[in-house]
Amino acid sequence: MEKQLSAHSFHIPVMGIGFTVDTPVKVAKYGISSVISLVDDKLIERMRKVYCEKLEVPFQVISSKIDDYRAKRITSYLNTIDQTVKNKFAELKKSFLDKSSEFEKYFEMLPNFSELRAKFEAFIEKNTVKEDVLAWLDKHLPQGSIDVNIMTKLDRENYKDGETLPVEFNDAHAALRGFAQSNLNSSVVLSAGMNPRLYSYIEQFKDFYPNEIGILKKQIILKVSDYRSALIQGKFLAKKGLWISEFRIESGLNCGGHAFATNGFLLGPVLEEFKLNRVALKKELFEIYSKALAEKGFDAQKMPDVKISVQGGVGTAEEHEFLLQYYQVDSVGWGTPFLLVPEVVNVDDHTLQLLCNATEKDLYTSRVSPLGVLFNNVRGNTMDIKKMRLIAEGKPGSVCPNGNAAIFKDANGKAICTASRSFQKNAIQQLDAKNLDAESYQKEFEAITMPACICNSLGTAAMLVNGIEPTKAQGTEVAVCPGPAMAYFSEPVSLKRMVAHIYGRENIIKRTDRPNMFMKELRLYVDYFKQQLKEISGPLDKKQISYFNEYRKNMLDGIEYYKGLVLEFKGKIEHVKTNFLKEISILENEFKSLTILQTQAAKA
User: Which ranges constitute the DSSP H helices of 95-114?
Assistant: First the structure.
């Protein structure tokens, strides 16, 4: 079977909960792939009503009182989005004879040296019959993939009549089931680390196994930050007859959303390891996979493809091209910059202006996430303003309208969120009983009240943009989680202009002092190390010493790697060599001075 060509060399990753909840409707018809978050089934249900009205089809509410409502809501929404995209794509193909049509926009946005465009132009030179052209388009023109994201950590237990439901009704499990039972022919992006129970649950769904012609209707994309994690998780799934169709490598710190900092593993060396081991990785996983498939009664003669993609901090066409050419990745994720493209994502006017004006000082990682993981934030967002107001009024915490982050247990064994009012009220009462001095009390109080209700506020923008009235408990406050790259983008742009920027036909970055993406990440890891040193209290134990020594080694190895990598900078990217080497020298000296401090602390 002839392999279909890709339209684009970039994808739009999941952003927040609501920012990309319907992005496929806006970009899939142009051959651009994007990712929907499956965290909030309440938002998903309300968005389904919006699209049913647009499609002029009946909408029947899926009540939270029926069995398995979360999975059913997700399945119904994904089917609605799938049908909406198919309709739009069909209309686009039929418009190929119209001037200034959507069809023209599709081809105008393709990369400069698009093989797809070249093949189409060659075809219409010899074939001008309308029916023949339509047939060619139906066969060859790719639609963007409607992918979904499941954060494996968000696997909250659920209850009915006071009793804990079976594990398959946990949030992540239900989301997986909702996707697996949908009509989509696409991928689930698994992020936030390994969840063995969830991974094992995938075995139950036939769409993740090859059909009679060896095609996987549902595919798995694994988001990872280092090679070792990819290999461990890949083997775990392969042993169950489940294939990883794509490893999506993300920078630990130079990204949006939650920041899963690695132990000093920098993006460049990680990409190099995947590049060098790509063939061996595929072969090792296939040996395990084919054996497991055979045991399940499937024939696995042909080795499926494994794509490698990367995301986190990319901001110029030169960087995009370098990642494709040097590291041979299949796709590059552009997330944060698309927050300034209102026709692609759901972003309200206030948040859009906040992002346009954000500088490096406004963009930071905080502890507002109830998951206990660093979270990218921007100063002045309305969620944080409300949180501080409630603290000042003596009512810290959220009423917890959704509860998606209720993954911890209270004293009675019930799931609870650390951003909830009940949790924070109880924790403060326990703190009051300690009779601490003012400074110690304030430090612990701030730690208790730091988590905020992001599982609600990350979806609010979608409601505001789509005319959905938030409930009183939900409020209108918006949380947003851009990566550090936002500092270098300063104005709203159209989809067409953003794509032109990605492919080097236009430059929308006005600043001239933007650092290379690798150097920006290195700076973030040096600063992260500084912060860890500040948090040291007393002598280090053996585990801490081992951690810091490994971090130091990985960082210095990465710095040496970048000194060699600069020799590969050619063509348009060659002009950054001088600044790149200068920045490496500065950061290396700064980091080495910090490791000396760490050594002294270890001896104390």
Answer: 102-108
Residue 535's pLDDT band, with cuts at 50, 70 and 90, is confident
Mean pLDDT, residues 149-160? 95
pLDDT digits (tens, 9 = 90+) for 353-374: 999 999 999 999 999 999 999 9
- Predicted confidence at residue 378, as pLDDT, reads 98
Dist. CA 388–CA 400, nearest whole Å = 16
Q: Burial code of 147-179, b = ≥16 C-beta within 10 A, e = fewer?
A: bbbbbbbbbbbbeeeeeeeeeebbbbbbbbbbb
CA 366 – CA 446 distance, rounded (Å):
12
pLDDT band at 573 (very low <50, low <70, confident <90, very high): confident
Pick from 334, 376, 339: which is nearest to 357 by CA? 339
Pull the structure tokens for residue 174: 């239900």
For residue range 69-82, list pLDDT tens digits in order: 999 999 999 999 99
Confidence category of residue 604, pLDDT binned at 50, 70, 90? very low
Rounded to whole angstroms, the Cα distance separating 146 from 1 reads 23
Element (H or E) spanning 285, and its range?
A: helix 267-295
Q: Exposure of 193 by Cβ count < 10 A (0-12 exposed, 13-18 middle, 19+ buried)?
A: middle
Instruction: For the full predicted model, state whether its pTM sits above 0.85.
Output: yes
| Number of CB atoms found within 10 A of residue 589's CB | 10
How far is 478 from 385, CA to CA, in rounded Å? 10
CA gap 397, 279 in Å, rounded = 50
Q: How far apart are CA 349 and CA 479, in angstroms?
A: 13
Token pair, residue 148, equals 């979904």
Tell me how crowded residue 431 is: count the other CB atoms within 10 A of its CB: 16
Bridging pattern class, strands 219-224 and 244-250: parallel
479 Cβ neighbours under 8 A, 6+ residues apart: 16, 368, 377, 381, 383, 384, 452, 454, 457, 458, 460
Closest CA relative to residue 290, chosen from 246, 221, 247, 238 = 238
| Percent of the chain whose predicted confidence (pLDDT) is above 90 | 89
Q: How many residues does the chain have?
A: 604
Per DSSP, which regions of 163-296 are E strands? 163-164, 187-191, 219-224, 244-250, 258-259
pLDDT digits (tens, 9 = 90+) for 165-215: 999 999 999 999 999 999 999 999 999 999 999 999 999 999 999 998 889
Q: Are strands 258-259 and 374-378 parallel, antiparallel or unpaired?
A: antiparallel
* CA pair distance 267, 410, nearest whole angstrom: 38
The residues with which 12 forms a beta bridge, in sequence order, are: 34
Could you say which DSSP state residue 471 is in? -
Largest Cα span, the chain: 86
Rounded to 10 deg, the angle between the 115-126 and 130-140 helix axes is 160
Instruction: Label residues 325-339 b or e (16+ Cβ within 10 Å = b).
Output: ebbebebbbbbbbbb
DSSP letter string over 404-465? TT--EE-TTS-EE-TTBHHHHHHHHHHHHTT---HHHHHHHHHHHH----HHHHHHHHHHHH
- Asked whether the beta carbons of 402 and 46 are under 8 A apart, the reply is no
Which pLDDT belongs to residue 1?
Answer: 46
> What's the rounded Cα separation, in Å, for the pair 89 and 398?
42
Give the separation between CA 522 and CA 516, rounded to whole angstroms.
10
Between CA 85 and CA 146 the distance in angstroms is 9
Nearest to residue 456, comparing CAs of 438, 470, 439, 437? 470
